[in-house]
């Protein structure tokens, strides 16, 4: 808006050369015009492609030729400068903001009156000839960094919802990544009856529907937390071509023929707190199989959020919901050709009481992923307790080449 207003401000009488920036002015050998330039209105100073065609007045033949020549010359030079600038941006995409700041500083710090006049004129020209080019340059620079290939799909754990990723969503979007957080069936803003969920397929349907509707040429990075690990494993088997990488965050990373219940039933790894914090719900009667698992609200902080800020614990206490029981008992069918073709990464949480570190290590050893990372000082909910560290790991993993030749399970990192 500011650039457009400059075009209509009074412009003092100047010669055509004075209207040009120093780096676009004609060579010294060009003869100076002997005839003075008549006073012109602001509209007459506009280039032909900006001036209103209907309201433009006809001028005398001599002055008309001079003005057309000068405007066309300015137009050509501006286009050349714009192309050079675009080429420079393409070669130096990472320095885009620095270039823009340096140009702005030069225009701002010009002290002489002639430089201020040139600045006004150059801004009016750039608003018409270069603005669209610069916008495209910004987009090209962004594409060169590959944000279109960094599309994260975040899948929450049992009892959580898409809400739990709010810090990670903000951090990833600030980095120009595409992000979608899924509410699994009966979780978060998905209000289907938990007690009616009979299979893992039903529970993971919002995720599989999302992948089914994804364009064939698109791939996403699946991030699963806790029971969400079983859900992303199921989705990887169904849509292997639409998943570039899978990241398990303190998650149930199962093997073929294994269920989450098989993992959680390893009582040697589970503490007394783990057992006290969860209670079964028998919607179909006490003599039937449980339909859901609920949490003891008084133990939530100690069990899931021991390192989480109090305001996030308050958010969780009013947002957590019961966990459907049937998906926990279902054994997965995972093949090497589909599930096994996707690079997997595991992020351990060392102060986790819900899925203790020994239990996480047991899953890693049973089917080693590409790489293992460890978040020091993280509770069961690193997206709330250590969001910046988790974000850094997600970005680091996303930047790894898909075909990177790594020895499985031998690389470990601590953060």
From TrEMBL:
<feature type="compositionally biased region" description="Low complexity">
    <location>
        <begin position="124"/>
        <end position="138"/>
    </location>
</feature>
<dbReference type="GO" id="GO:0080031">
    <property type="term" value="F:methyl salicylate esterase activity"/>
</dbReference>
<dbReference type="GO" id="GO:0080030">
    <property type="term" value="F:methyl indole-3-acetate esterase activity"/>
</dbReference>
<keyword id="KW-0012">Acyltransferase</keyword>
<feature type="domain" description="AB hydrolase-1">
    <location>
        <begin position="152"/>
        <end position="390"/>
    </location>
</feature>
<feature type="region of interest" description="Disordered">
    <location>
        <begin position="108"/>
        <end position="143"/>
    </location>
</feature>
<dbReference type="GO" id="GO:0009694">
    <property type="term" value="P:jasmonic acid metabolic process"/>
</dbReference>
<feature type="compositionally biased region" description="Low complexity">
    <location>
        <begin position="34"/>
        <end position="53"/>
    </location>
</feature>
<dbReference type="InterPro" id="IPR029058">
    <property type="entry name" value="AB_hydrolase_fold"/>
</dbReference>
<feature type="compositionally biased region" description="Low complexity">
    <location>
        <begin position="17"/>
        <end position="27"/>
    </location>
</feature>
<keyword id="KW-0808">Transferase</keyword>
<protein>
    <submittedName>
        <fullName>Putative hydrolase/acyltransferase (Alpha/beta hydrolase superfamily)</fullName>
    </submittedName>
</protein>
<dbReference type="Pfam" id="PF12697">
    <property type="entry name" value="Abhydrolase_6"/>
</dbReference>
<dbReference type="InterPro" id="IPR045889">
    <property type="entry name" value="MES/HNL"/>
</dbReference>
<dbReference type="GO" id="GO:0009696">
    <property type="term" value="P:salicylic acid metabolic process"/>
</dbReference>
<feature type="compositionally biased region" description="Basic residues">
    <location>
        <begin position="114"/>
        <end position="123"/>
    </location>
</feature>
<dbReference type="InterPro" id="IPR000073">
    <property type="entry name" value="AB_hydrolase_1"/>
</dbReference>
<keyword id="KW-0378">Hydrolase</keyword>
<dbReference type="GO" id="GO:0080032">
    <property type="term" value="F:methyl jasmonate esterase activity"/>
</dbReference>
<dbReference type="GO" id="GO:0016746">
    <property type="term" value="F:acyltransferase activity"/>
</dbReference>
<feature type="region of interest" description="Disordered">
    <location>
        <begin position="1"/>
        <end position="68"/>
    </location>
</feature>
């Amino acid at each position: 808006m500011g650039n457009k207003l400059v075009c209509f401000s009074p412009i003092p009488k100047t010669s055509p050369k004075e209207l040009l920036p120093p780096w676009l002015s004609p060579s010294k050998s060009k003869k100076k015009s002997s005839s003075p330039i008549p006073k012109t209105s602001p509209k007459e100073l506009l280039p032909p492609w900006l001036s209103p065609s209907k309201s433009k007045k006809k001028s005398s033949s001599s002055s008309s030729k001079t003005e057309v020549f000068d405007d066309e010359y300015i137009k050509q030079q501006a286009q050349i400068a714009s192309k050079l600038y675009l080429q420079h941006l393409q070669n130096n995409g990472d320095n885009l903001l620095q270039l823009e700041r340096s140009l702005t500083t030069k225009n701002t710090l010009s002290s002489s009156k002639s430089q201020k006049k040139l600045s006004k004129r150059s801004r009016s020209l750039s608003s018409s000839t270069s603005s669209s080019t610069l916008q495209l340059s910004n987009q090209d620079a962004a594409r060169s960094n590959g944000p279109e290939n960094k599309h994260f799909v975040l899948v929450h754990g049992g009892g959580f919802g898409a809400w739990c990723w709010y810090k990670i969503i903000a951090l990833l979007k600030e980095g120009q990544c595409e992000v979608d957080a899924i509410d699994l069936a009966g979780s978060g803003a998905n209000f289907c009856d938990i007690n009616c969920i009979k299979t893992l397929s039903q529970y993971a349907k919002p995720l599989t529907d999302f992948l089914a509707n994804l364009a064939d040429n698109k791939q996403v990075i699946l991030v699963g937390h806790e029971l969400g690990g079983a859900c992303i494993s199921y989705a990887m088997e169904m849509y292997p071509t639409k998943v570039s990488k899978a990241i398990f965050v303190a998650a149930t990373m199962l093997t073929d023929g294994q269920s989450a219940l098989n993992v959680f039933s390893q009582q040697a790894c589970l503490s007394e707190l783990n057992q006290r914090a969860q209670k079964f719900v028998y919607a179909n009667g006490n003599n039937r199989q449980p339909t859901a698992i609920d949490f003891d609200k008084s133990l939530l902080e100690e069990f899931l959020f021991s390192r989480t800020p109090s305001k996030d614990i308050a958010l969780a206490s009013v947002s957590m919901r019961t966990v459907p029981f049937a998906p926990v008992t279902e054994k997965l069918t995972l093949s090497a050709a589909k599930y096994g073709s996707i690079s997997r990464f595991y992020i351990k949480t060392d102060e986790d009481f819900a899925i203790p570190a020994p239990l996480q290590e047991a899953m890693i050893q049973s089917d080693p992923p590409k790489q293992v990372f460890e978040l020091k000082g993280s509770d069961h909910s690193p997206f709330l307790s250590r969001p910046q560290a988790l974000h850094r790991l997600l970005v680091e993993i996303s930047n790894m080449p898909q075909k990177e030749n790594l020895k499985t399970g031998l690389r470990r990192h601590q953060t």
